[in-house]
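To close the section, here is one more complete example, presented without commentary so you can practise reading it yourself. The ligand is 6-O-phosphono-alpha-D-glucopyranose.
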Amino acid sequence: MCGIVGGIAQRNVVPILLEGLRRLEYRGYDSAGLAVINNQQIYRKRELGKVKGLELLLEADPISGVIGIAHTRWATHGKPSTANAHPHISRNKIAVVHNGIIENHEHLREVQQKNGYEFTSETDTEVIVHEINHAMESTDGLLNAVKKALKKLEGAYALGIMSVDEPDTLIACRKGSPLVIGVGFGEYFIASDVAALLPVTQRFIFLEEGDIAKISINELLIYDAQDQLVKRPIKQSQLTADAVDKGEYRHYMLKEIYEQPFAISQTLEGRFVNNRLQENAFGHNAAEVFDNIKAIQILACGTSYHAGLVARYWFEKLAHIPCNIEVASEFRYRNPVLAPDTLIVTISQSGETADTLAALLEAKKLGARYALAICNVPESSLVRESDLVLMTRAGPEIGVASTKAFTTQLTALMLLVIAVGRRFHLTEIAEQKITSELFSLPGKIEQVLQLDDEIRVLAEQFAEKQHALFLGRGTHYPIAMEGALKLKEISYIHAEAYPAGELKHGPLALIDADMPVVTVAPNNSLLEKLKSNIQEVSARGGQLIVFMDETLATVNDENIQIVRVPQVDNETSPIVYTVPLQLLAYHVAVLKGTDVDQPRNLAKSVTVE
Ligand code: G6P
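Output:
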């Protein structure tokens, strides 16, 4: 949700900020802006739409400066417009970029208007910059004014702030939204994500909750939430600038779909010794925690929630441990009851999803003693709030529609099922079988990727459709949900998933020749049941596309098109069946000409409620 980048250097920072914005565009892309201080004046450029628009604006009318801040927006308060785009400025003196939401903005706006501040946007952010300006009247220096102003703000923020009164100072603040400082040689940068700054540095300081940093060329001071001067470690990132390049692929999403065999092998890498899962992969005290738990509660959002839904089937079937799962935004406000000794498992690609983080904190308030995160970003807030962690190691995922993050989450969750299951129902033989299934996954997915051309042709049937239904049973019902989510996210076709057995209770009424019904049909114990459901659809003239195990007999029915999926082992087959559905959504979106990597209205890292 919104990307921030800023810098203070001995060279013009504008090209660095622009490149940073391009790399942060996955966080929001409805408008972009940039401001610098030069000669005691703030120069600002803003443009509706993507960063490219801002780039063109700057080409036509360049600005430059050795200190600057920039922003790419995902609108929360106020529609996407140039006036609402950041940076926001107070009386030509202070400029601010903001990621997060200020909850008491209406009250602050009223007071500030009475104090004579003029508002030029509908955003919650504008109150921040006026509040700092107001505080400057009664305090000494920008840093103290920021500290004073922040006390008035309720809500979440990552901020980059600069003032013409102190053109050699950049202020960075973090509360509830991520922010890193990139440490260069004789220069510093700030950003919402390390990816933005990889072209200029690989050394990062990760600000903690409540931190305020005063940054100048010669000095970096960080104050913690208690206003104590603190030292934060500099960490070396393993990522390189080209880790977030598209390479030869037309879209990031396609690249990330194709990276799945490698990504899954990375998830497994080094976590087994002599084919036996090592529990310290989850943290040094994992064994002790696993010994004490009696139930699992999974919390997540979006695609990560779908990974959790599959895991619930696995936990209960394979490990025989009670497992609940809930969308994080519901859990956090529902007054849930947690069974004693419940392990909270959060799942998140970014580790910054506001609802997932808040749900975890809520669970802790409710007395949860153990929390484990399945996450893709090592320094993320979720990782830091959790006792145990299993990194998915998918590598940076840029496409807004999640692909490799999902299949690596499922792989990581199966590792957790093994570790916990050992203490419950999972036999040594079953563990060995699942382990060997896991190691065969990269090869299986390579085979599925060979269906790409066939699926591209199939996608043509969807381009003119308005709706689609996805069916699955058991662990493949969440895969149907994920397939439907992918299709709606990037092709804007309305898609719904149903457990196939539920069809007769309503959705069958929707069936006609204009509603493609995509069905996931692996060769498992539910196949016969599923076949009956398929017949129910066909008998009513429904058009089915069935992703089916290659070993199964052909079906002679003109309403049914079969795509043969390489034969897969039982428990891990949801991971394999995900891939053709990703490819289907991708090709439909390409045919429809939508913005595959940055679909309308969405953003990747949802750091607001
Ligand atoms: C957004 C993204 C989804 C993602 C969800 C949860 O909605 O567009 O792709 O699944 O957030 O994100 P997380 O980072 O917590 O997995």
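Once you have examined the tokens, check your reading against these statements. The first strand starts at residue 3 and ends at 8. The pocket of 6-O-phosphono-alpha-D-glucopyranose is lined by residues 301-304, 348-350, 353, 356, 400, 402, 602, 604-606 (CB under 6 Å).
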